[in-house]
Amino acid sequence: MTGVLTVSETKIEDLPLLHRGKVRDVYAVGENLLLLAATDRLSAFDCILPTPIEHKGAVLTALSEFWFARLSNITENHLITADFDQMPESVRRSEMLRNRSMLVKRTKVFPVECVVRGYLEGSGWKDYQATGKICGHELPPNLQQCERLPQPIFTPSTKAAAGHDENITEAQFAAIVGTEAAEHLRSTALRIYEEAARYALSRGIIIADTKFEFGTDEDGKIILIDEVLTPDSSRFWAADTYAPGKAQPSFDKQFVREYLETLDWNKQPPAPELPANIARATTERYLKAYELLTGKTLLAEQ
Ligand SMILES: Nc1ncnc2c1ncn2[C@@H]1O[C@H](COP(=O)(O)OP(=O)(O)OP(=O)(O)O)[C@@H](O)[C@H]1O
Ligand SMILES: [Mg+2]
């Protein structure tokens, strides 16, 4: 590979920056394309940490690429290429974008998060404890934290510009996206989750829940967009240590969270630096997730 560069923030002179998320920087490439650049930023407890995680952006990008290809029999997607050398010259001028960027079709985004849950954790667990339901789905009584659900459920949420997304019922979801699109998004999200979760489990990873986004392309077709089935958009757990009744260690952020819990830090920005051994262990976890899921070694490919 061509020298490792950790990147906390991308800069491209010739392209308009549309958006900086917690992890990804989004640029416009002409009228109809976007460049999604995954940096090496890591967030924990909703704060961006100052220490970049080597190879993280590359893992997120390569995993999304892997899933887009694997799921292409279920849905079309926005990916044009993740191969840096195939990108327009305006992109190739910034070497820092290599191995971390996806060139995609720009779509009109449905303003909702299509969440699918196979296990009970996070806001789903909170809602269940308070009401016995998630997004209107009645669930059996006495389920434990992180327990596998009888079947995966679709639990959409709003896409809040700031603050936390809010879970909505399927009726509210349909009112936002329209009845016809609602049915398509729901059934596609469930099919993708079921296929991916079954495959991941055969490779030792539980995908407890995940979030998809969809958009409409210029022909009016609904396609899968954003990142897919990465540790940033999903809860990944190691299947061999899974035990319901308590929180599960996060596959990727376990060491970071455990380290941060030992500090006297109030979990408000600014977040503290990570020691080199914790950052290194986190890199190893991202590389491991990629290796387990794809059966390939990322660094050998670059
Ligand atoms: N093909 C596409 N067309 C149009 N917009 C897209 C496409 N793919 C992704 N996006 C948008 O790009 C943005 C990526 O932002 P990103 O996820 O990095 O940050 P965020 O959602 O604001 O915050 P967070 O970092 O918490 O996820 C999202 O708003 C997503 O909807
Ligand atoms: Mg996002």
Secondary structure layout plus pairing:
Elements: E1 17-20, E2 24-29, E3 33-38, E4 43-44, E5 47-48, H1 56-70, E6 79-81, H2 89-92, E7 101-105, E8 108-109, E9 112-119, H3 122-131, E10 133-134, E11 137-138, E12 148-154, E13 157-158, H4 170-177, H5 179-202, E14 205-216, E15 222-225, E16 234-238, H6 254-261, H7 276-294, H8 298-301
Bound molecules: adenosine-5'-triphosphate (ATP) and magnesium ion.
Tags for this model:
globular, D-amino Acid Aminotransferase, Chain A, domain 1, 302 residues, alpha+beta, binds adenosine-5'-triphosphate, seven-stranded antiparallel sheet
Tell me the number of structural domains.
2
Low-confidence stretches: none
Query: How large, in whole angstroms, is the Cα Rg?
Result: 19 Å
**Averaging pLDDT over every residue, what do you get?**
96
Number of helices: 8
Major sheet details: 7 strands, antiparallel
CATH secondary-structure class of the largest domain: Alpha Beta
CATH topology (fold) name of the largest domain: D-amino Acid Aminotransferase, Chain A, domain 1
- Annotated CATH architecture of the largest domain: 2-Layer Sandwich
CATH superfamily of the largest domain: ATP-grasp fold, B domain
